[in-house]
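Before relying on records like the one below, remember that each one covers exactly one chain. Contacts with other chains, cofactors or solvent are not represented anywhere in the record.
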Amino acid sequence: MDLRGYGWSRGMSGSYTLDEAAADVLRTADELAITRFHLVGHSMSGLVAQKIALQARGRLQSVTLFSPVPPTGFRADEAAMKALNAVIDEDEAAGRAITARTSSRYGAGWLRRKLTIAREASTIEAKRGYLIMFTSSTISGETHGLSAPMHVVTGALDIPFYRGEPLRNAFALAYPRVTFETIDDAGHYSMLETPVRVASIIEKQLAG
């Protein structure tokens, strides 16, 4: 499903908080009469998936996270927030961010396509709201009570925050059944860079 302000939910506004996003997902599952389910999340939605997993841990069969924000959150000082807001407002800043998250390995055509996707996928209001969400939220509570297996997938060509040892340590400390996998040929956008590999990883988790 698309979060408020994104994709097919682009016309839905909200407070863009972690609690709201988690509640929307669980309400959707209820309306579809899905009692047990697998969760898949990417980047900031990896934080949302963790929140859902702890709120509805008895309903979870597995959690698969691609390049996720760790449970400790994404802490950003004033300078970092200025840079992240520039990514929302300025194509040049967004292009630099995309290039950094793919180790500068793609050409101008792909960069234009990725930037178009980013601009058309969501509203400015949603972008700003979720930016505040994932730079000010952490996952707390009885994380060790999550019995469902969690699989964290990182891209070897991503920026260090989304693939480094601190991220792995944060997940390992929080969740008892976490496993890790690296996609050597992907950066932050593995679903676009290596779609067959991503689909295969998800299928493996569902089958398990």
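The first helix runs from residue 18 to 31.
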